[in-house]
Amino acid sequence: MTAIAPVRGGPVDARVDFDDFVAARSQALLRTAYLLTRDHGLAEDLLQTALSKAWFAWSRVDGQPEAYVRKILVNTYASWWRRRWNGERPTDELPEPAAADSTDSAGLRHDLSEAVGRLPRRQRAVVVLRYFEDLSEAETAELLGCSRGTVKSQLSKALAKLRIDPALAEEQTGELR
Hints:
Elements: E1 6-7, E2 10-11, H1 12-37, H2 40-57, H3 65-83, H4 104-117, H5 121-132, H6 137-144, H7 148-163
Antiparallel strand pairs: 1-2
Helix pairs in contact: 1-2, 1-3, 2-3, 5-7, 6-7
């Protein structure tokens, strides 16, 4: 019989389960956080905040811990953008323009990323969860705390905006990028 020594936040076996979960799923969760925030630093902060919230509730997590942590991630992201202004700050000097990316595949990913980034936050969250995280309408609705109809309408509006986005428009050759 082995004794379980208590550790801050829960017993040792709960900590081991949590550590295994973080090791196995943190990259996928970080990708979700990046797709929501579009900033590597903010994505890491968002994931760290979500994982710290999950750590304190880990003993109560039943069934699917990834869905639980993903819901924390999306809710934390939503609370951040409700509280925060869009982040623009006035400055006297303009920043240097970014260098153009010369590779086609990276350019296409960048164009898609830019186009998704121009979507309103709720539409961006729906697109990320439905297409990048491959969640169903019901799972997306549950995660965002809205109805399936809201998910459908937000997704429809987002796809309509993406269809007319200039970054994703046809190239001069007539082929879709």
